[in-house]
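Late entry, written up from scratch paper. The run itself happened at the end of the previous shift, but nothing got recorded in the book at the time, so transcribing now.
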Amino acid sequence: MCYSDRGEFIGAEPSPDGDLVGYRRARDAAIAASEPFPTWWARHREEWRVNHSA
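Output as recorded:
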């Protein structure tokens, strides 16, 4: 996908047909290894804005 310097979507190029299986496999592996954000966030209080100086 292509985006401008301001983050606007410009366009995309289709992937070759054979690439889709690999991308789906990578997606499935990432989802299987992930955890819900609220669970992660609760464990990482050091990242909370209230714990950072301005």
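Residues 19-33 form the longest helix (15 residues).
(Scratch paper discarded after transcription.)
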